[in-house]
Every structure is written in structure tokens, then in C-alpha cells.
UniProtKB/TrEMBL annotation:
Family per similarity comment: Belongs to the chorismate synthase family.
Highest taxon of source: Bacteria
One Gene Ontology molecular-function label: chorismate synthase activity
InterPro entries in the record: Chorismate_synth, Chorismate_synth_AroC_sf
Enzyme class: lyase
Protein name per UniProt: Chorismate synthase
Protein's UniProt keywords contain Lyase: yes
One term under GO cellular component: cytosol
Pathway the protein takes part in: Metabolic intermediate biosynthesis; chorismate biosynthesis; chorismate from D-erythrose 4-phosphate and phosphoenolpyruvate: step 7/7
Presence of keyword NADP: yes
CDD domains referenced in this protein's UniProt entry, alphabetically: Chorismate_synthase
GO biological process, one term: amino acid biosynthetic process
Length: 356
């Protein structure tokens, strides 16, 4: 596989907030002369965008982005890339200024920041920040695609409804096709939609899981301890709001099996070493073994629900009942799949670049 040009200190940082004028991303480390794959960016943003679906918020944003610097005529200049998306559909009045929403970052951020009131819509902790994340992820996907590496995420589970995926023999082509069909699940999408709609009608929410595969990763990328592939990918994935667990390969299934049942036997095939199974998810000792890297991210139900919840009024010191208004997702999993794919692509881009 052709090597990516050695890049020092790739950094991706997000800025803005849910109800601020804009959200954006700063990217350091894109080599000069790199073509920016806007199609990859647009695809991620389209999958992440709310679409009047049964699971998603009624808040509709165009998510049109502008490169403020670092890109000229579709090509990276080698300097810091800054891209921004305007917020055009905010309703800050829907959010209480002193009553934190249970299981949101409202209270913790209020204390940490020494704020005089709670940031509307969650501020910088909102899922709104995954829009600029998709810009960075699209750039990373474009760079990786030129080197024969694909990063593909899809919805695996919503509200207890589990679909098929890579471990069931689903091909990369099928996963790509599924990304054009909401809820971006390879199978059982209709049942998943029903689970999300039932939660919405009850004023509640449901969680789920997103699976991701990395195809074309060469052998020998990564290392032990915190330099490993699992460490790098998990680091990026936990930056996506609502992700509460990450597991590679068979994941928690390892706890129920014998070693003889889940070890991946080595074989020669077509002149190269492969494993007959891929329970390890393409990683041994933190290093890629040449098989597809597979992992799952579990996302909690969004905490913003219409049911009455117990909370406190920080301005009066009283216990209160919160009856939340606003526009919220009954299930964030379909939209989060694009963010998971973006975060994973960024992690893989960093890993490959460090080895170049």
C-alpha cells in the first residue's frame, strides 16, 4: 500500500455551541496539495442531518459549510484548515436557564465553567458539534480512500432491535448501499424505526449501537499500551456525545467463551496470511493484523425527553419537576452513525500518518 506523507501533530478541534452563531472545526496536519473530498464530507453531513424522520429532531439545519482558511480551489494549502457551519434555526427560550436536564452535561458544565446560567441546548456538549466533526471526518476519509482504506459505519441496533452486520457475512457493498436508506441500517431498519417511533409517541427516547469496519488497513499499524489501535479509535469515539461503550471484535462476547472457541486461526490464502475468523476485530496487541478492523459503539438514549423528570433549580436551591420543551431526537443512533464513521476515520488517518 502506498504510504501517506509523514504528517506531524495532526490535530482536530471543534468550536462553537448548539445555540451560538456557528459551529466549526480546526484541522492541523493536512499535507499541502491534498485534494479535499467534498463528496465524502457532503455524504457524512447528509446522513447526520435531521430529515423530518420519526426518530429525529424537528430542528432542521442546512449544514452548509464554508472553508474560512486552509483550502484554496479545493486543495489544502498546508496551513490550518478552518471550516464553519452557521446555526440558523435555534430556539434558546425552550431551555431553562437554571434547571439542569438529568443526565446531560448541563450541571457539570455549569460548575466547571463558573457560568451564570446553563448554556441553551447543551452548548459545546451538544450533538450539534458532530456536524463540523463530519467535515474533518470527510477530509480524513478522502485521504484514506486514496490509499485503499475504507471506513464504513452502520446502525446495528435501536431499542433492542438488532440487525445483521459484518460478523453475519454482510459485505462492504451492502453496507455502502444501506447508507443511502434511513435509518442507515443493513437489515431490520423498519423494526428499528418502529421502536424509535414508539418511544417518541411515549415522550421518551431509545438508544442503540453503531458498528464500524475499517477495510484495507495494512499489517503492523499501532503498538502496545496507549499507542494501540483500540486506544486511538476509542479516544476519538468517546468524543461523540452519548457514546457510553466501545468494544472491538467479539467484544463482551469474549466473557462467555473458551479460548478454543474464539481464537482466530492463521491461514495462508492467495500468498498472504489471513485469519480464518476475525473475533479479535483485526487487532492483536494493539497492532493491525491485516484483517478488517471491527468495532461497535453503544449510545445511550438521548436524555432530552418530554416526560416529567426530577431536577433542581440552581437559582433557588429547590427540588423541582422539569417539564422539558424543545425539539429533540427520539433516537440519535441513525444520525450518530455518520459521526462515528467520521471519528473513526480521523483516528485511522492519525494512525497511518504516524507510521509513514
Amino acid at each position: 500500500m502506498e504510504k501517506i506523507e509523514k504528517t506531524e501533530n495532526i490535530k482536530v478541534s471543534l468550536y462553537g455551541g448548539s445555540h451560538e452563531k456557528a459551529v466549526g472545526v480546526r484541522i492541523i496536519g493536512v499535507p499541502k496539495g491534498t485534494s479535499i473530498d467534498t463528496a465524502a464530507i457532503d455524504s457524512l453531513l447528509n446522513r447526520r442531518r435531521a430529515k423530518k424522520a420519526v426518530w429525529s429532531t424537528p430542528r432542521l439545519e442546512a449544514d452548509e459549510y464554508t472553508f474560512l482558511c486552509g483550502v484554496r480551489d479545493g486543495v489544502a494549502t498546508g496551513e490550518e484548515i478552518v471550516a464553519e457551519i452557521k446555526n440558523s434555526n435555534t430556539k434558546s427560550g425552550d431551555y431553562p436557564k437554571y434547571i439542569p436536564r438529568p443526565s446531560h452535561a448541563d450541571y457539570a458544565a455549569y460548575i466547571k465553567d463558573g457560568a451564570h446560567e446553563i448554556a441553551p441546548g447543551g452548548g459545546r456538549f451538544s450533538g450539534r458539534l458532530t456536524a463540523p466533526l463530519c467535515i474533518a471526518g470527510g477530509i480524513a476519509k478522502g485521504i484514506l480512500a486514496e490509499k485503499g482504506i475504507q471506513v464504513l459505519a452502520y446502525v446495528k441496533e435501536i431499542g433492542g432491535v438488532v440487525g445483521k452486520g459484518y460478523a453475519d457475512g454482510v459485505t462492504a457493498e451492502e453496507i455502502i448501499l444501506a447508507q443511502d436508506t434511513p435509518p442507515y441500517s443493513v437489515t431490520d431498519g423498519e423494526a428499528m424505526l418502529k421502536a424509535a417511533e414508539a418511544a417518541r409517541l411515549a415522550g421518551d427516547s431509545v438508544g442503540g449501537a453503531v458498528e464500524c469496519i475499517v477495510i484495507g488497513m495494512p499489517v503492523g499499524i499501532g503498538d502496545f499500551y496507549t499507542a494501540g489501535i483500540e486506544s486511538a479509535i476509542a479516544y476519538e469515539l468517546f468524543g461523540v456525545p452519548a457514546v457510553k461503550a466501545v468494544e472491538f471484535g467479539l467484544g463482551t462476547g469474549f466473557s462467555k467463551a473458551f479460548g478454543s472457541e474464539v481464537n482466530d486461526p492463521f491461514r495462508f490464502e492467495g500468498g498472504k496470511v489471513i485469519t480464518a475468523t476475525n473475533n479479535s476485530g483485526g487487532v492483536n496487541g494493539g497492532i493491525s493484523n491485516g484483517m478488517p478492523i471491527t468495532f461497535r459503539a453503544t449510545l445511550r438514549p438521548t436524555p432530552s425527553i418530554s416526560k416529567p423528570e426530577l431536577s433542581v433549580d440552581l437559582s433557588t436551591g429547590e427540588n423541582v419537576v422539569l417539564n422539558l420543551r424543545g425539539r429533540h431526537d427520539a433516537c440519535i443512533v441513525p444520525r450518530a452513525a455518520a459521526a462515528i464513521e467520521a471519528a473513526a476515520a480521523i483516528a485511522v488517518w492519525k494512525l497511518i500518518s504516524e507510521e509513514a
